[in-house]
Amino acid sequence: MTATCAIAGTANAPKGAFQFEAYDPNKEVDVELVLAVDISQSMDTDEQEVQRAGYVAALTSADFLEAIKIGPIGRIAVTYLEWGGVDEHFVVADWTVIQDQQSAAAFATMIAEAPLRQVQRTSIASALHKSVEMVQTNAYSGLRQVIDISGDGPNNQGGSVTEVRDQTVATGVTINGLPLMMKANQNSWQAMLQLDHYYEDCVIGGPGSFAIPVRSKEGFADAIRMKLVMEVAGATFGDPLVKRVAGREPIRCGLFD
To answer: Cβ(54)–Cβ(35) under 8 Å?
Structure first.
């Protein structure tokens, strides 16, 4: 946490005295990262298990650990949050510093061993609110703050997702997306929605923000690993994986709010 000062409020304190918060170098990290994971009803048990396994594999991968090691500080702070409707938030693994294989494995174990949950609605807006709150109230001071949000549908509760996105970006937090499109071939509604475009137009934001669509269960772990490595390294795509809005009709972000 960055050192701060305040005028002492005690009667015995000399006039004009300042009180400094103790500096703790162990609280400095390269990135404060919220992994915000969709557990709405549309995510069946099989998909949730694939999702969990993908995060566990990515968090313990050599690529991810190498990306952490080459950072200026060499460690990150990360938390794993599951979300559904308004105020349906479950912290599966609280803020943890990852700096080596041992700390990564301990964090991944918390995720792997937690019971699966399922909730009714999909409030990306509420998930972003909660994620920002977790960034602002944690004990760490990161060079960057990132929310990594995954989901298989649009915001359908909790108000305007674009308003919350803009408020989030205004705080200095970057939002990256992982639109889950594994049912697009069998679900005409999801295919029609073009969830990758929805995430690009309506959800992600901030410097270097990006979205990586997941189109198959087999590609889930690779997509998460790529995403985490890029977030930790602060990398961006030279050629985005999804088309920019200028190259197509924009998505109507408020259609489902």
So the answer is: no
186 CB burial (10 A radius; 0-12, 13-18, 19+) = exposed
Give residue 11's pLDDT: 46
Inter-residue contact 130 to 50 (CB < 8 Å): no
CA distance 30 to 140: 10
- φ, ψ dihedrals at 209, nearest 5°: -65, 150
Q: Which residues of the chain have pLDDT under 50?
A: 1-11, 13, 15, 240, 242-243
How far apart, in whole angstroms, are the C-alpha atoms of residue 96 and residue 76? 8
Domain parsing of the chain, residue ranges: 26-255
**Residue indicated by tokens 């041992």:** 102
Which residues, 6 or more positions from 44, have their beta carbon under 8 angstroms from its beta carbon? Answer: none
Rounded CA-CA distance 23/125 in Å is 34
CB 120 within 8 A of CB 114: no
pLDDT for res 68? 97
Report the 3 state secondary structure along 205-240: ECCCCCECCECCCCCHHHHHHHHHHHHHHCCCCCCC
Residue-level pLDDT at 16:
52
Could you give the dihedral angle defined by the CA atoms of residues 163, 206, 173 and 199, in that order, rounded to the nearest 10 degrees?
60
Topology of domain 26-255, per CATH?
Answer: Rossmann fold (3.40.50)
| Closest residue by Cα to residue 32 from 168, 141, 166, 128 | 141
**Where is 92: in which H helix or E strand?**
strand 89-98
- At residue 239, the pLDDT reads 53
